[in-house]
Amino acid sequence: MSRQVISSRQLALIIASSIITAGIIVDPQQLARSTGHDAIFTYSLSLLLSFIVCYFFYSLSKKFPGKNLFEISFIVAGKWGGGIINILVLLNIWFIFARDSFATTMFLRATLLQKTPPEILIMLFILVMVYYGKSSIEVISRVNEIVFPFAFVIILFFPLLLVNEIQASQWEPVFTQTPAQLALGSILNSIRFGDLIVFGAFLHTVQNAKHLLTGFRLGVILSAFSLTIVIATAIAVFGADILARLNFPIYSLVAQINITDFMDRVDVFAFSIYFPAAIINVVVSFTAFIIGISAFTSKNDPTLLSLSTGWFLLLTILITFTNFVELGRFTFYSYPAYVIVVQPLLFLLLFFLAKRHPSVPIPQTASQSKSSTADQRNNRSGKPPKPLGYWIRVTNISILSSMLLLILGMTISYISPWIRTFCAIGYGACLILALFSVVKEKKRAEAG
Length: 448
Fold this sequence. Notes:
Blueprint: H1 8-23, H2 27-35, H3 44-63, H4 69-111, H5 118-133, H6 137-156, H7 158-161, H8 179-193, H9 209-238, H10 240-243, H11 249-255, H12 266-295, H13 306-320, H14 324-356, H15 366-378, H16 388-412, H17 417-447
């Protein structure tokens, strides 16, 4: 079987698409309940923890090029130890798949297909999963490259599209929650970014470790930036108290968009973009699941397991949740407990076992030679570009600065409202700077 290869840009976009489409349905409501107006500032801790996961995957990919997380587990922990680790990872991926499938189904049923039985919707989801499961991550990433930019543009223009509904006074006052409440909201966001474990199944699809690292970092920052815009806009339109009571805040938010009298159904266009992105999110976790299952078998082609695994997962989803309340309890109580307890232990265990294992040599490919030649050609004229390490430091400093501004806002904002305003604006500026620098990271890594 030929090796599947995706670019760092494709990896970043598919990570961003998965996190955004999964978090945009119910997360704004839960964050507004836990942190009120300060829900906007709950992404710094998520980004720091996500960067740790990114470096973990980077170290594994650098030491075991061409191997995914399941194969690496068997290499470093043996047949039985690797099997236990992979079962725990598969269980985590199944949680993500079942949660996102049921959440998207309930969203469809509550907004558009109210009289359609949920079993029919889930069965249609599984049929799509089986169809894409017989292809490859390359096909999924190419479809996502078409869909995600439209979804991102809609999110980016939310403040402009809703300018008539936005009340700036709804954002105030900021930094009024206790540190414990802000920490709770940050932990909830961190759990959402814990879904990055799904992409451990695709470590072998990226050309080299540097591309993998920059792709992961761009994906998580793009996700945090987009979700911050959504939450900030929702609070400005509804207020934190009303937002905490809305079951599907994003639907209510898009329904408020009215562009003159003849374009009052923008929600139809917006959700025609959202649904393919949501399907891609579930397809990614399904593909990761069958890759993990194939690691236990002698079959090198995971697409052969697509049909049987799809029907098996259909049965498990139907008996897992019965209503939206159970889904919410699982998403914000049971699943976070599993992630907090299991994921750090798995990552630490694999990290130390990998350090003791000898490295696999990295072959020099023709594409790497071409990229190095192109980089030398670009350096002949003008000033040499900044190295990759420079932009990585800029991104890290930006995220650390945003956390510092949050700490200042929580501790000394009572002195003057100007301090609150400065810390809030500075937090947004740090996110924008981090997004700019991480794009530079990706370009520098691709240049060689």
